[in-house]
Amino acid sequence: MTEAADFAAFPKLELHLHHEGAAPPEFIRRLAGEKKVDLGGIFDEQGHYAYEDFWHFLKVYEAATEVLKTPEDYARLTTAVLEESAASGVIYTETFLSPDFCGGRDLGAWKEYLHAIREAADRAERDLGITMRGIITCIRHFGPDKARETARCAAETAGDWITGFGIAGDEKAGKPKDFAWSFDMCREAGLQLTAHAGEWGGPQSIKDALDDLKVSRIGHGVRAIEDLELVDRLAEEGIILEVCPGSNVALGIYPNTRCHPIEMLRERGVKVTVSTDDPPFFHSTMAKEYEALHNAFGWDEEVFGQITQTALEAAFCDAATKEKLAKRLETRA
Ligand SMILES: [Zn+2]
Questions:
Q1: pLDDT, tens only, 234-283
Q2: Residue 127: CATH number of its domain
Q3: Which range of residues forms the domain containing residue 317?
Q4: H-helix segments, 36-176
Q5: Count of beta carbons in the 10 Å neighbourhood of residue 206
Q6: Residue-wise pLDDT tens digits, 196-221
Q7: Four-CA torsion 22, 25, 27, 28, nearest 10 degrees
Q8: Distance 117 CA to ligand 1 centre (A)
Q9: What separation in Å is there between the alpha carbon of 18 and the centre of ligand 1?
Q10: Cα–Cα dist 216/239, whole Å
Q11: 203-213 and 228-237 helices cross at what angle (nearest 10)?
Q12: Mind listing the pLDDT tens digit for each residue in 142-187?
């Protein structure tokens, strides 16, 4: 097992995937063409997304998202994203959905988008054998007031399919405690919680997310490695890290996979999982992430098996869904 193609057959669970960020560029171009929207400047000569750094990446991301307007667009996006994931061996995916982009945080509109996304997801489950669940994310740089509106959409649609709430966007905007009200509301609605931290922010950003938002999972969290006491706390408390090595390398947080702290965190007892974040932006797939980790650290089937078990335990879906997934992992079906 050394090539991405070999790793594609390995059944995978992905916990950290931004729905719009997973949009294949050819899908966005096609949609822009149909709508006669000029997206010039966001693609390079090879047709990939083009950006300079993280903040520019956010701009390109939002520009690409501009063509996704209607529930039908989101249904088509869902199909395109799940096809890509399934081709990489993903049997279960938790995708970040933003009522900010789906209906401007209006609850009635959000329900229409959600209905369209779920229909497409149900179809993909039947046809491709991939199960999807949604985690609603507020966008940090849109501020705490808008986050409250997003949290209301999350709480009102919480259930067996919308199973989590989180926060994404520019980690340097505001503090986690500014968003505590939204997280409290979603916890009371039965949603499980995750927050992006320790990607652009240092160890303190992770401590703040744990203390102020009381999340069970951290999106990224890799910069915990700069504070070994925090690493030990993560291990002791069983906090799950949704690690996206390819994203961190593509955005320049680490120069290459070998320098990425995922292996050190794992060796010190932290529960790490592997995801792609916004795969086409980073020229990544789940199979490529596995290949890179195998090449950098010699991770083999046994290690990937442990990572997958960790992801299964940490998944925000219900027990019946976990049981079904566990059976598929056992039989590698
Ligand atoms: Zn992310």
A1: 999 999 999 999 999 999 999 999 999 999 999 999 999 999 999 999 99
A2: 3.20.20.140
A3: 4-322
A4: 54-65, 71-87, 107-128, 144-157
A5: 30
A6: 999 999 999 999 999 999 999 999 99
A7: 90
A8: 20
A9: 6
A10: 6
A11: 30
A12: 999 999 999 999 999 999 999 999 999 888 888 999 999 999 999 9
Q: How far is CA 116 from CA 122, 159, 331, in A?
A: 10, 16, 32
The residues, any chain, with a CB within 8 Å of residue 33's CB and separated by 6 or more, are none
Rounded-to-integer distance, Cα 50 and Cα 57, Å = 8
Q: Residue 133 has what DSSP assignment?
A: E
Q: What H or E segment, with its residue span, contains residue 247?
A: helix 245-250
Catalytic positions: 199
In a domain, 288, yes or no: yes
Domains identified in the chain, total number: 1
Dihedral sign, CA of 194, 200, 206, 211? negative
Q: What is the pLDDT of residue 1?
A: 47
- Residue 329 in any domain: the answer is no
Q: How far, in Å, from the CA of 164 to the mean position of ligand 1? A: 14
Q: How far apart are CA 324 and CA 202, in angstroms?
A: 38
